[in-house]
Structure formats: structure tokens, C-alpha cells
Amino acid sequence: MKPLLSKCTKLKWPLITIAVLGAIGYGVYKKPPFTTVHSNELGIRTNLLTGNTTQFKQGSAIVIPGINSFKRISLKDRVLQPKAIASSASKEALQSLEGLSIGANVIIRYNVNETNLLNTYASIPDNDKQVVESAFYGIAYKIFSKYTVREIFSSKRDEITETLENSLKPLLAHDGLALKSIQLGSIDLPSDYRKGMDSLLAEELASEKMRYTIELQKKKLQAKELEAESEKQRREIAAQAEAKTQIIAAQAQEEAMKHIIPFKQRQIEQRKLEAEADTAARIQEAQGNAKARIIEADGEASARKKLAESDAYRIEQIGKANANQMAKEGELISKHPGLIQKAMVDKLSDKIQVIIAPPSTSGFVGDNLLGNGSRD
Amino acid sequence: MLFTSVVATVAMNTAIVIQDQSSMLSAPKDSARQQAILWSGELVEVRGEKQNYLQIYDYKRERPGYILKSKVKTLNLSEQEAPQLLSALRYVQYQDNSEALSIGIAAAWLQSATTNVINGSEGAEVFNILGLKAQQLADKASRDIQLGNYAAARQAAYFDVVKGYGVKFNSYEYGDKIRVCYGGEAFRRVLALPATDEQKADAAIALTRSECSDPNLSVTDKQIVNQWQADILDKVDDTKLPAWKANQIKLRRAIVWSNLAFRRTLMEKEEAGKTATMAAENAIVSLAGVNKEELIESDLKDYNNAIMAVNASRWALLPKNNSPLTKAGKNLYVEVIPKETGESCVTLLDEKHNLEKHLAQRCTFSKVWLSSATKNKENTALSIAVQPTEQWRELWVFYKKGDNWDINILPPAPSTPDIGYAEFAGWVPGGKKILVAQEARSEGKYYPARYIIMDIGSLSAERQHNTSSELGAFKRWQDPSWKQQSVSIR
């Protein structure tokens, strides 16, 4: 028995070690000291011994059981729709300024405040929806009760939403949450009131429409006025440009006319000089002609005088010659009286037969021929 | 509208007066009192017949009467009668003093023919005859001759008759003369109808007469009219026309395009500059296309006018409006400085002078052709072309007078600006003389092309001839670019 016991004693410690290692191995196998942080998550590891905290983003983190605690915080947006205030018939329905119960369909979107998370993560409630809802109710009743139904229903929706957001934001920040938006959806009114409200809104809408129509017409009118104005200006500019072009063209023509004037003047002077020269030339010519005529006349006169003198001289000479001739003829006839008849016969034509007859008693040889002889 | 009055006047029994001075009598006998004198072409309503007289009613004078049957031709204005009327019109149009009768027959034809026929080739023929006769009447009235009593009465009566058919005339005052022009509606219709090329050519020529453009139109309107005229002339296919007729179209195109070239250069936009070059090119191409051998004598005036107009605006052909004279060296050069008043100041400069302290300056409202600037070798004179109106181009000569510079301006003729050019043709070495070409038509007088040797200082002619080759100086010293670009030398 002893050897067996001593053998067992010898094997005791290795067995214990194996058992411990096996237990540890089993423990690690069953509950590994690692954890994974997914996307859209943040992990906060706390050392339970020291109280230190470490933040992890997507990836793995060592978490030793008993030494570390690990908390995952989702970064996804969370949405809350408070149901209790959705209907006007609900007991928790909101109250308007007039005291009317109204329901409001509200959508609250919020998230974990990522900044300074290591300090605030501990205050993030696990039941955040309830916390946000109660915080919202806490402000909603107060805020909605300050507005009339009409304001809540239509005209001041934006203002109410903004007030709700501004009021809720610090409350949620206190709990490490960040409000992203509040959306005010449909408003549930008591049915009777709803009808009246609808008609009222319709009227308002109509009047609004009319207002817009009038404004539109005004705008159109203004647009037309502007168009007309611009058209008028365009035309004025075009007219001015045309007028300027016209003026330039006219002035260019006038200028061209001016350039001609010196030439015209020169032409006139030239013509004047030509005319003067022509006059002088004509005068000279006339004077020349007159002188020439005088000279011609003088010449003619002296020529005629000479001619007359020569005529007179010639006549005188002829007379003298004739007288001499007659004297000579007289002498000859005295000597030979028959010569007269002979001369007469010589002057008559050959075709006339002449008979020389003795002189008539009258003494004229032609008396017989002319029939004067028969008168006796 | 044309002939609307005809529609109202003509009735079932109508007659057209075919003889001038036909008497409308109060009774059907020769000795009866004369109610009115009717002229050929007048339409009257026939209401009856008695012996050899027709009983008629004259709507224009609102008077009934009788007229000898032989003085009128009765018409029923039926569709069947249209061919006869057209035949008659074809013969009557060639007779002297047949304007009113032709237009009367044409109006009757328009009343008789169907719409399809009027819109066809026959319609074009009738409108063409109508337009030509109306134009002939207007031309007769515009002639500067003293008419006898009968001729004057007939002319006035014809106008009265054709105006009754809706034919419209315009009167324009040119100086102390009146120009009567046909409105041109018939020609516009010819262009819209399936007319022959010759008919279209007639219409285009008639619609683009420069003497019948309204002298009172604004510059802008003139440009619009010129553009319209250019479009009309471009629609005529001159290749299908007889050579002499094609010449008429080409001459007209040359004038219209040269006017447009000048107008477009005055526009400030750059695009206009390009279109101006195109217009000047069209003008020169049209003029170059004229067949001189086929030019008829009556077109000689148009030929000379076309040459002068094209030559006046020929500088628009050069696309760049820069001076060919550079600033480099001691050379003279000019710059054109625009002023707000619309004037352009031609400034003479050299290397030692700037715009503030220039050699000489002259401002003008005219178009300054900077690309025409040229100077002599001696650097003592510089000439530049300046155009005051669309068809009138002057020559400006800057010249050195002692130490200073002076300017002389030579117009195309010593007469009212109308159509003409005075242009630089060359420098005579020595720096004292310039060669110049001049041609103009103004105040009804034609100053034929002359080639002159001028003294630069006085711009007085020393020698001149109507042929450049007859002057030795022109043979030796004429500028090569002038000889190449000018259309002055025929």
C-alpha cells in the first residue's frame, strides 16, 4: 500500500498543475478574455482594480474577467415616438392655450454624445428611451399650452419645434445624450374643431391664395413695366445711336461741301480772270479792228482819189485823143465824104445786102435804107 | 392695294377707251355738247347703244354721256376674254404713248383671268408690262424738257388714268428738280411669280434704281434698303440672261454692294468689318464680270457710275484697318484717333513726335481709310483716302511747308458731293509733285476720268490727260499698287 501511496504522493502536484491548467484552458475556451467592438459602436473598458477607463473603437479588446468590465455603446441614431400624446382622445393628450385637448405626432431623434464619452458614459441610462420620453413630456405640456390650436396646427409649427428642441437638448445632454432633431408631424384635433378649423384654414388659404395671386399680378405688372422700360431705353439708345449716325453722316457731307468751296472759289476766280482776259482781248481786238478799218478806209479813200485822178487824167487824155482823132477825121471826111457811108456799111452785118447809093437830098446816107427816102 | 379700285369700277358691260381725247357727248350726235374728254385706257360702263354711239357712264367723273363706238372697245371681262386681252397688250405695249392704254388693258386682264392664271407665267408677263409702262410714264414726267400743250395735257391725263387703277408713284426732290418714280409693286409681284429670268432681271433693275431711292431716308434705313436691293439682285441668275442684260444686273450689283461696303464699315462691330470686306469683294467681282463688248450705249452712264462707286469704296476690301506705314525708323506714319463726338482725328507722327505733340492733325466725320496711307520717298508728303459719303472719296495730302506741316484736300470735282473719287496714283521723285486720278458726276454733269500731275503744295494741275498712258510721268512713276487695285483705268 505504501509504495502505491508514495507513488500517488509523487504524482499529486503534476496532476494538480494539469488540472489547474486544464481548468484555466477550459475557462479561456469557454469564456475567452477578448471582446470585439463593431462598427457604429464604442467600447469602454474599466479596470475594476484601479478604476481606469479605456475607449475602443472598431476592433478587439482584452477583457479579463474579474479585472475588467466592458461596456458597448451603440452610436446609431435612436428614434422615439411618444405614443401617449399622439391622439387628442388620449388621457395624456396635450393641452392648447384654449384648453383644448390635442394630439401631436412627434418624432424625436437623438444619439449618444460622443464627445467626452469617457467621463459621461456612466450617466448614460440603459433605458434611454424612457428617460428621453419622460424628459420630453416634462417640457411638451408646458410648451404646447402656450400656443393656440391654430398656431400649433399651422402658423407656429416651426417656432414650437424649435422651442421643443432648445428645451430638450440640455436635459438630454445631462444624461450623455445628444438631441438631433424633433419633428412635429400631424396634429390630431377634436373632430368638431377639426371641421371648423379646416374651413377656416380653407378660407385663409383662399385669402392667402388671393393675396399671392394679387402679388403675382403685381409682379407681372412690374415685370411688364420693367420690360417696357428696358424696351423704351433700348429704343431710346437705338434712336440716339441712329440720330448720332445721321448727324455724323450729315456732318461728313457738310465737310465734303466745305472742301469743295476753295475749289469753287478758285474756279470762280479763274472764270473771272478768264472773263477779264476775254474782255481785254475783245477790246484789243475791237481797237485793232477799228484801227484796221480806219487804215483800210484811208487807204481806200486815197486809192479812190488816185483812181479818180487817174480816171480824170485818162478821160482828159481820151478827150484830147478823141478831139485830135475827130479833127483828123473831120479833115479826112472833108477830103473824102464817102467815107461815112463806108464806115456805116462796115458796122452792119454781113447778112445785110448793102447797096451804095448816092447821098440823099437830106444828106444822110442811111435814109434810103431806113425807108426815110419814101417819105417824099 | 393695286387694282382694288378696278374691281369696284368694272361692271358686266364695260368699255375701255382706245383713243386719246375721245369726246363724251351729251347726245348721240356729233353736234351735241361735249361732256368730257376721255383718254386712252379709261374704263367706262356701257348702259346702252344708239345708232353708232354707246351710252356710257363715267364713274370717275360721275357723269353719263355718249361716245362713238369706234373710240372704245367693249369688254365683258370674262375668263374667255383674257387671252384676247393679253394678245392686245403684247402689241399695244410697243406703241408710243401707250402707257395708260397698256395699263388699262393689263387691269382688264387681271379682272378677267382666273387666280391660277394670274399666279402663273402669264401673270408675271402682265405685271412686268404693267411695271415697265408705269416706269416709262414716270421717266417721261421726270425728263427735263419743256412739253407742248397737248403733250403736257396728255401726260397729266395718263397719270390720272393709271392712278385710278391703283398704280402709285413717288416724287423726290433733288435740288431744284423733281424725280417721279413708280412705286414698284408690279415688279415685286413679278419676283414672286414664276417669271422668266429676263422678266426677273427687268424687275430687279427697276427696283434698284439709285435715282428712285428716297433721299430723305435715314442712314440706317438706307442700309436696310440697300441690303434688300442686294438680295433682290442676287436672286437673278445672270448666266441665263443675254450678255447686255446680264451687264445691267452686274452694274447694279456693283453699285449696291459698294454702298453696302461703305455703310457696313461705319458699323462698330467687328463682324460688320468682315461683312464689309465681303460686300466690297462682291462689288468688285460684279464690276469685273461686266462684258464691255456687249455694253449698250444707254448703259454707259451706269457703267461709269458703277466704276466710280466701286472705286470710292474699294478700300473696304482690305480687312485690316491698319496703316501700312510702320512706326519703325524715321518714317512718317499716321494714326486715327476716334473722338466721342464721332469724329476721327487723322494724326501725322514720326519717331520724334507723339499723340500729344504731333506733326499735324485734322479731324473729320468722314471714314478715314487708314490702309490707304502712303508717303513719298523724301518723307515730305503723305496721302490718305477719306470718304465722306458712300460714293464720294477725297484725297488728303499732308505736306511739309518749311518746318511745319500743312494739309491739302482734293475732292473728286469742284461740285456738290454726289458720286466720284480723287485718288493717289503715285509720287513723282523730288517731293514736289503727286500723280492723281479724278472722276465724278455731280449736279447732272459728268467729269470724265482724268489723270493729273499735281503740285503737292497747291494741288493745282500741271498736266492732265484722259488716258494715263499719254502722260510720261504716269508711265514712269505710277504706284504699282494703285494700278493693281484701282478700277479707274477701264
UniProtKB/TrEMBL annotation, chain A:
SUPFAM superfamilies (UniProt xref): Band 7/SPFH domain
Membrane topology: Single-pass membrane protein
Database matches in InterPro entries: Band_7, Band_7/SPFH_dom_sf
Regions annotated as coiled coil: 202-243
GO cellular component: membrane
Localization, UniProt: Membrane
UniProt superkingdom: Bacteria
Keywords for the protein's UniProt record, in alphabetical order: Coiled coil
Segments forming domain Band: 36-217
Name under which the protein is recorded: Prohibitin family protein
Organism: Entomomonas moraniae
Species lineage: Bacteria, Pseudomonadati, Pseudomonadota, Gammaproteobacteria, Pseudomonadales
From TrEMBL, chain B:
Superkingdom of origin organism: Bacteria
Name used for this protein in its record: SH3 domain-containing protein
Native source organism of the sequence: Entomomonas moraniae
